[in-house]
Amino acid sequence: MVMTKFRRFFCFSICLFTLTVFADGFTASVYAQEIFQAGVASTVITPKQPMWMSGYAARTKPSEGKIHDLRAKALALEDSHGTRFVIVTVDLLGIPRPSRNWLEKKVNRRYKLPPESLLLNASHTHCGPVLEEAKDSIYGNTFYGLSPEQLQQSRQYVKTLQRKLLRLIGRAIDNLAPARLSYTHARAGFAMNRRLPTEQGYRNHPYPDGPVDHDVPVLRVDSPDGKLQAVVFGYACHSTTLSFTQFCGDYAGFAQLYLEEAHPEVTAMFIAGCGGDQNPYPRRTLLLAQQHGRALANGVETALLSQASPVRGPIQSALETVTLDFAQPPSREQLAQQGQSTNKYERWHAGVLLKELEQNGKIRSTYPYLVQVVQFGGDLTMIALAGEVVVDYSLRFKAELPGSNVWVAGYSNDVFGYLPSLRVLKEGGYEGGGAMLYTDLPGPFAPSVEKLVVDKVHNLVERVRTPKSN
Asked: What is the mean pLDDT of each run of 10 residues along the chain (470 residues)?
């Protein structure tokens, strides 16, 4: 009897000791998490007047109202060393490179924020306004066929947008307050590869056997006492559920709305992933856009329920240009022949390149491609790639970069057209080079495209993962 009581007491003591150690260890892991400074801000960027909409060349009239407001949002972060980093997301087709250049100069001058510390990402909604920069005499009108008045309206919108983004970043920085960061992820399943192989080539159609990335990465921002303040999430899929003439953020816009409705004091920000060859299916109705938005929001909610991993500093970032080569451009004779095409976009593209040839004596042969990498301590690596990036890049970098969580974004800092992988380039089709018809670029890229981008990413990752010397 005495031995039995002793054994019970011993077992109870061991269990109590174990629970105490576990509890203390859990508490330490939570409360030892590094304190950042974080600030968020949001602003409406919906045009006040009807405007021509971007994304689809077949539209025949300007916008007719809105489903919900388009928004721009900013998250400013500062680590314990005083290093700042700002993420800006917009419900737009893309960020024009000149706007990125203008904004980085202004924030550097006004807020002492270097270019590598600013990440811009567009949701790529096809229900936003056309962003037309003031172009020189080479290019003239866009392939949308806008009137001079519509062009001027678009250019004025871009100027207004730039000023709004500058003020937005300033507000986010002004709102800096103590916070904790953590990373988690879940999944959503409505994205599907859209490059269906047929005897006639690759068709834009659901392809269930094609590569996909259904990951939903989530960066959560909490107050020191554990109150959720902001959530940044991503998904690799085109925002092409809708094709009508009302302003709308598509599924990504609805996902943000649903999350903010469920968490009234939280700012939800969407980062578009490598969805260049991914479409939401099924699509083409408002109800489907709402359903996909709900599915993505549910994925984020699921991620928020799971155990998140602490994200610590320091913040280290790098932004560089890698020069991508185009394939041999068409000759003057070939362009002249293309200019006689019955396809109005082929005629427009030929005219653009002929004007460039006449004015410069040659057609450009390279493109200055932006690559950005951000490292949060040893916990999270964010890779931000320009253009409409196909899913191969996301899958490759996640496989090749062990050691911390890896988040790969497309549509960042400059949306000029598609970035194909070597596989997609060889296969051809729309993403492989056909879509260059709707840009002022000669296209397609040369076979070196994937290697150049991958090598640059690895180079920058190695740089930012190397601890800074004191």
From this structure: 44 40 36 84 98 93 97 98 98 96 98 98 98 55 81 95 98 98 98 97 98 98 97 98 98 98 98 98 98 98 97 98 97 95 93 94 97 98 98 98 95 97 98 94 96 98 84
> Which SS3 state, helix, strand or coil, does residue 235 take?
strand
* Cα gap 345→351, rounded to integer Å: 10
Q: Give the separation between CA 433 and CA 194, rounded to whole angstroms.
A: 15
CA distances 120 to 368, 390, 410, Å, are 17, 18, 10
Instruction: At 323, list the tokens.
Output: 């020069």
Measure the CA–CA gap between 3 and 253, rounded to whole angstroms.
67
CA gap 219, 231 in Å, rounded: 6
Bond prior to 208 in cis (omega within 30° of 0) = no
Measured CA to CA, the distance from residue 155 to residue 134 in angstroms comes to 6
Listed residue (370, 389, 384, 174) closest to 278, CA to CA: 389
Residue length of the chain: 470
Q: Whose CA is closest to 294, among 222, 207, 189?
A: 189
pTM for the whole structure: 0.92
